[in-house]
Every structure is written in C-alpha cells, then in structure tokens.
Design goal:
The chain is α/β, with parallel strands linked by helices. Helix content is 32%, strand content 21%.
C-alpha cells in the first residue's frame, strides 16, 4: 500500500506548497523529501500550474513590490526570477525523491514555456513575466528543459492524476482548450468521463474550489484548493482506495 499526497494548483504560492508538504510529513524543514517519500511509501503528485500568481495580491507577495504593475518590465523580471528561484527548490525536491514525486504540466506552465497564449484572470492580471515580447524574462534553459519533461497525466493503481481532466482533449492546451467551457465544467456536466476513460478514480485541479470536491459516485476529486489550506491524501493498492481531504495551516 502507498500513501499519495496530491496537491492542486500552486500558482506561485510556494510557501503554501511547502507548508502542505511538511504537514503531510512529505518534506522536512530543509525542503527535502522525508524518508517515507525517498523509500516510496509516500508518493507526491503536484497537479501543475506552479507558475503565475492568481491575483495582484499574489504578485505583490511574491515580489515584495507594493505597486506591482504587470506591464512594467522591471516588475516582470522580479516576478519571473522569484518564481525561477522557487522552481529550482521544487526541482531539487523531485531529484531527491528518487522517482517518488511528480509534477504534472498545467496550462499555465505550458504558456510560460511556449508563449502561444497570453493568459489572464478575472481580476485583470495578465501573466507576462516569462514572455520576452512583453518585456518578461524567459525561463532559463535548464529549467525550461525540466518543465518540458513534466507529464500531463500520471496513473497509479488505476487512479489517474491530471491537471484539468481525464480525457486527451482536456490535456491539450490548444485553442480548443481555451475556447471551450469544458475544461472548467466537465466534472459537473459530464462527470462520467473518469469511469468512461477506464480509471477507477481521478484527481484533478484547474478549477478553483472553496473546498475539495469529492464525488465518490462518479469517482473523482477536484482539488484546486491549496490557497484554501487543503490537499488530498489517498491510500492505494490494487484492492484498496481510500480518499480524504486534508487541511493544514491556520
């Protein structure tokens, strides 16, 4: 049996990420994997979107710039370099985890690599910091190669982990992905996708939720709730599947 610690979209809330990993006894005070992770008794899955804070306040916390301006090249450079520094810490963690931790590629990570779409959010923030054509600072080559290697799906004992959903078209960050509502609504409108795709259970992020959504009837969880102080634990083997939302922090 293995314990899986699944964490939803990070969006540059790296302090929250480390807090969750420490709460799950998956990371030590130095930001390195604990013995259960190194030995494979615990597995860690990060569901992607490690980059791009969700809000102006998130950029202000990240950069320490009280009047952060997403069109100011100096501010963009500060935001990019702050995220690069934190991504390198995550990279160090994964390398020390001996194959027992994985990061999945989210659409924001994809956009930071390829600049094929300028992403924004409802608060009016546009995520320009890694795009040179807007004055941003591109990802360093070594870090870029590492992120390019992140898978879009991970399956363990018949349980799928993916950023947005179970089907191939929900893992292709193309024009259809952004033009369709489905990436945000499939789990309400077509919740049978997981079982129809052949998985015994699925764990997904991408859609922010007030608290983790656990649909045992249709076999999935929506866990984009790291900023709400939540992650998901699963106890797994070929015959056993236990799922429990976990809370951490104040």
């Amino acid at each position: 049996m293995v314990k899986v610690i699944a964490i939803g979209d990070v969006h540059a809330e790296f302090d929250r990420l480390w807090q969750a990993l420490r709460a799950a006894y998956a990371a030590d005070a130095e930001g390195l994997p604990t013995p259960p992770v190194r030995e494979g008794r615990y597995r860690v899955v990060l569901l992607g979107d490690l980059v791009h804070p969700k809000s102006l306040e998130g950029y202000q916390r990240l950069t320490g710039i009280a009047d952060y301006d997403p069109k100011n090249p100096e501010h963009l450079r500060t935001a990019a370099l702050a995220q690069v520094s934190e991504l390198l810490k995550v990279k160090r963690y994964l390398e020390a985890a001996r194959g027992h931790a994985v990061v999945l590629l989210g659409n924001h990570d994809h956009a930071a690599l390829y600049h094929d779409v300028l992403l924004g959010n409802a608060s009016g923030i546009e995520h320009r910091e890694f795009d040179p054509k807007y004055g941003g600072h591109p990802l360093p080559p070594g870090l870029r190669r590492w992120i390019e290697g992140w898978p879009k799906s991970h399956v363990l004992h018949g349980v799928q982990f993916a950023h947005a959903g179970p089907t191939p078209w929900l893992q292709s960050y193309d024009a259809f992905f952004y033009q369709s509502r489905e990436a945000k609504t499939w789990w309400r409108e077509t919740p049978d996708y997981v079982r129809r795709s052949g998985f015994r259970f699925g764990v997904y992020g991408h859609t922010p939720v007030e608290e983790i959504v656990l649909d045992l009837e249709h076999g999935f969880a929506i866990i984009d709730a790291l900023d709400r102080g939540q992650y998901l634990e699963l106890l797994l083997d070929e015959d056993r599947l236990e799922v429990r939302p976990m809370a951490f922090g104040p």
